[in-house]
Amino acid sequence: MTSDRKIRLAFWGTAPFAVPLLRSLALDASFDIVAVVTRPDEPVGREQTLTPPAVKSAAIELGLRVQQPESLKDETWAQSYAKLKLDVAVVVAYGKLIPQAILDVPKHQTLNVHPSLLPKYRGPSPIQAAITNGDPETGITIMLLDAEMDHGPLLAQKIVKMTGTETAPELEARLADVAALMLPETVAKYVAGETVLTDQNHSLATFTKIISREDGRVLWSKTAVEIERLHRAYQPWPGLWTEWEHGGKTMRIKPLEISVEPNISDSPGKVFANLVIACGSGGLKILRIQPEGKKEMSAEEFLRGHKDVIGSIVS
């Protein structure tokens, strides 16, 4: 490859995390992004409005060609992808496993950007895991993709210090900005043959899970500190929620803003004045809350209409 020829690249991504990285490559004169591959549009919200992925919207704004294959096993699409004469591909939060045959299409194969310091936190929820575990740091890994999940050799890593107060969206935005700064130079050096790949220490691998709505249910037997971390990790979805037996019915309520009250000691789930709830250790003060089917409100507003919650047990 001569130095004056642009690197022909395919960018794979779906989620908002990928958008700053796509922009960083698109605005770098070293690259020619010949295809942006993203997931199909999906229905969103109560109206089930067909909505494009964030990466598609960004790609159209940048004037890039978008591909949205329904299936990566579609032979017609795979053949057209193989004809792009790619130097390399980059995958960022695409959200679906890519067959090895597709990964191998580019001359220099396919790279991936992952928001953790691999081999720690392989899998779909590394940002949430770092927050819930109270880690002092996390980071970005750029790696070569292989057939196993987050398993391939490493090109580059960058440590990002954590404050212990960040929510998942805040940490995601910081990591995306760091990755966007790293990516163009890392890819260019790799294609030029200037990178020494480093195998991961697979014996140290840890794995994260797909988060479900049920994961947002508060287990009051956990410590207040643990629940507060979950509150930050599970924003905006699934959020924390708990249930209260009220008037012969079960009311689901979502704590929206909370603070730790370390000196509370009582049965987990016991509700005190000012909407403080006992945990396995310490307690949580609910500052803002949203009852199911109603608008969000302050703790004071909620208590005016539900005074009998004081002294009860939430579950």
TrEMBL record:
Residues 11-187 form the Formyl transferase N-terminal domain. It catalyses: L-methionyl-tRNA(fMet) + (6R)-10-formyltetrahydrofolate = N-formyl-L-methionyl-tRNA(fMet) + (6S)-5,6,7,8-tetrahydrofolate + H(+). Transmembrane segments: none annotated. GO terms for molecular function: methionyl-tRNA formyltransferase activity. Residues 211-306 form the Formyl transferase C-terminal domain. InterPro entries: Fmt, Formyl_trans_C, Formyl_transf_N, Formyl_transf_N_sf, Formyl_transferase-like_C_sf, Met-tRNA-FMT_C, Met-tRNA-FMT_N. It holds the Pfam family Formyl_trans_C. (6S)-5,6,7,8-tetrahydrofolate binds at S116, L117, L118, P119. It is an enzyme of class 2 (transferase). Its EC number is 2.1.2.9. Keywords: Protein biosynthesis, Transferase. GO terms for cellular component: cytosol. The keyword Protein biosynthesis applies. It comes from the Bacteria. Attaches a formyl group to the free amino group of methionyl-tRNA(fMet). The formyl group appears to play a dual role in the initiator identity of N-formylmethionyl-tRNA by promoting its recognition by IF2 and preventing the misappropriation of this tRNA by the elongation apparatus. Belongs to the Fmt family. HAMAP family: Formyl_trans. This is Methionyl-tRNA formyltransferase. The lineage of its organism: Bacteria, Candidatus Uhriibacteriota.
